[in-house]
TrEMBL record, chain A:
Superkingdom in the source lineage: Bacteria
Descriptive protein name: Biopolymer transporter ExbB
Domain MotA/TolQ/ExbB proton channel: 61-168
Signal peptide residue numbers: none
Automatic annotation (TrEMBL), chain B:
Family per record: Belongs to the exbB/tolQ family.
Domain of life: Bacteria
Protein name (record): Biopolymer transporter ExbB
Keyword line: Cell membrane, Coiled coil, Membrane, Protein transport, Signal, Transmembrane, Transmembrane helix, Transport
Amino acid sequence: MVLLIDSINAIRDFLDTGGQVLLVIGVLIFAMWLLILERFIYFFKGFRSYKQNVKAQWKNRAERNSWNAEQIRQAMISRAGMRLNTNLALINVMVALCPLLGLLGTVTGMIEVFDVMAITGTGSARSMASGVSKATIPTMAGMVGALSGVFASTFLQRRAKREVELLEDNMVLDH
Amino acid sequence: MKLFTQMTKVALFAASLSFVGTSVAAEPMDLDSLLKTLEEGKSAQSVQNKQREQEFAARQNEQVQMLKNTQAKRNQMLVESERLETQFEENEIKLANLTDTLSKRMGSLKELFGVLQQVAGDSSNKFATSVVSAEIAGRSTFMDELAQKMGSTSKLASIEDIEKVWFELQREMTEQGKVSRFNTDVIVQGGEKAQQEVVRVGAFNLISNGKYLEFNPVTNTLSELNRQPVARFTATADELQNTKNGVVQFALDPTGGSILGLLVQAPDTQERVHQGGTVGYVILGVGVIALLISFERFFSLMVMGGKIRRQLKDDVARDDNPLGRVMKVKDQFPDVAHDTLELKLSEAILREMPKVTRNLTLIKIISVVAPLLGLLGTVTGMINTFQAITLFGTGDPKLMAGGISQALVTTVLGLVVAIPTVFLYTLLNTRAKNILLTIQEQSAGIIAQRSEKGA
């Protein structure tokens, strides 16, 4: 219990030194990783059974040669692709937004520094320090978020593309 | 004698003047009678002069007597002055001896008084700014007086004074460790005075009614800070005031109010937005437009998606959604070949496309333009700053602050508009793309499935 309170206080202090932008970045990174994890689970669990199902449906067709069959195959593959690509664009955008939010934090922090300078002059480095920490911590957090997300999102995109290709290869037309 | 001749001359002149005067007034006389008159006058004057001479001679004795008297007085004064001078010298020697004795007798006490003066001066300053003075007033005046008294050479501090300095220092120390309550006048927001219960936390903070107070040492008044810290800090202040005993968490300003003082001077969000100037308002306007378009798109795409999902489950093609309209092509041309059907389908899809992707490009453009506008604001702000530098030099950072805050605020506004717009654009674009994919790739598939079922 004490450990929990301590860690909550530590997080609160960290958010205080980083300012409001840090909170937004935190929420964004959290949402991004939730989506990424959901995708991972779907790729390795849910999609497998769906793939088997689609393949079986195709195999069980009486004829796989006519115009109708080709259109139906296309629709099946496109449906699978849509399932695979759900939220991937969103994850990508979130990764791209992380450094932008970091920049936002930098600028708001600099504004605070200049405010302090306008009030107290350049003499007091101590009163400028809070603005400087608000400028640097969100930048760092944005970088961390973007770097952690960029690998996951690239992996997911390549995986989705490959799965669609594999599906296309597996569902052959009879000639 | 010289004086005398002069006087006669003057008298002569006066007589001639009077003669001229009468000659003008009376009838003109001939020159002989004038001569006669002059002669008579001369004889009359010489009689008068003789008489005067006698008078002066008689007075001479008197003058001699007066001179003698005055000389005697002077001699007396000289003697007196000599006496006083010797006494002054004697006194001087006596004074020097006494001062010597004084400094000898004071010895190490002299250092003590020096220290006392210094301590009194220091603590006078400290007491004036300490928040403890809000509760116990008038301490710094005593210290001030004592410091002045010690500064003059002729006065010494009494034991009572020394003990009072000790007492005041001890009291300040004791009060620093206390949380105390007292009633006093507080200037509340709006400038009115009100009698309130004030809680003093050591020498650090003053709070009243859950609000932090500011102590003004010049006017010796308490006033509410017109900008309070965030709610979770003022909540602890409230808690502290309401508790009667026990331990309470409290947010303390260890600098004794200077951090809280900075809080008052920092501008709030609204003032900040105004600092952005014209460019800032333009960015905000563009952002509002993007937001409105996004909402309109969001709802229409949602409705469209719902109708398409219903259409996917339903076999009968409906007119109220894009997929239904494309599927109707099959019903319109029941007997055409596959190739022709495909062409007709893609034609119908092309017709639906603009309805789905309407305005999305505009949102994308705004998401790109907003940071660019921010950059524009940054540059204009920097121009202002450099103009200020040209006019006033770099000496005063306060003069440059306006331009710099404009530069930074517009950048912030650009990012604040761009970030959600990019987000919304992606969201809407994915939706629109999914709808198009459904129409493009599935309409043919659905038609194929249905024709198989029918066959």
